[in-house]
Amino acid sequence: MRLQFFERSFWLGAKAALISCLLLAPAAADQTLVVTVDQARVVKLPVSARTLVIGNPMIADVTLLKQGGTMIVTGKGFGETNLIALDGDGNPVAQSTVQVVGGGNALIVQRGMDRQSYTCAPRCQPTARLGDDPAFFNEVAGQIQAHNSQATGH
Q: In the prediction, which pLDDT does 121 show?
């Protein structure tokens, strides 16, 4: 009888300790947000988030929307970085790994050391992508800028 009481007390104490550890542990373990380069994604955050910190802004950019609880993550370059959301007192309320990947509708043409990228949706058209041969990249980027200038009248 005395042994059963001890076992029951031990397990109740162990459960209480486990629950305490879980409640004091940081917010959920890292989750991975996958974003396509040159695209944006809407992501929900805890409403208490007031500040966003991105580990490498050359890989991804984040914007906290004014109404709170929502951010926009934009893929800037290929790779992986981290994101931390802080509340008004500077305490972490969420953290994630941000992984930026290439799109699925790309055609890559490799000619020796020179690389050219095309977006194929539904027809293949030249596109400026990170890692392209500089002459091709600049030519395509110039065409995009000229098109945008004509479209906006600037």
A: 80
pLDDT given for residue 30 in this prediction: 63
Q: How far is CA 129 from CA 6, 45, 52, 90, 101, in A?
A: 67, 30, 27, 37, 12
| Residue numbers of the domain that contains 125 | 106-152
What's the pTM?
0.65
Structure-block tokens of residue 30 = 């890292």
Q: Is the pLDDT at 14 greater than 50, yes or no?
A: no
Asked if residue 124 and residue 83 are part of one domain, the reply reads no
Residue 37 belongs to a domain with what CATH number? Answer: 2.60.40.1080
* Inside any domain, residue 51: yes
Rg (CA), the chain: 24
Q: Which of 81, 101, 121 is the last residue of a domain?
A: 101
* Three-state SS annotation for the chain: CHHHHHHHHHHHHHHHHHHHHHHHCCCCCCEEEEEEECCEEEEECCCCCCEEEECCCCCEEEEECCCCCEEEEEECCCEEEEEEEECCCCCEEEEEEEEEECCCCEEEEEECCEEEEEEECCCEEEECCCCCCHHHHHHHHHHHHHHHHHHHCC
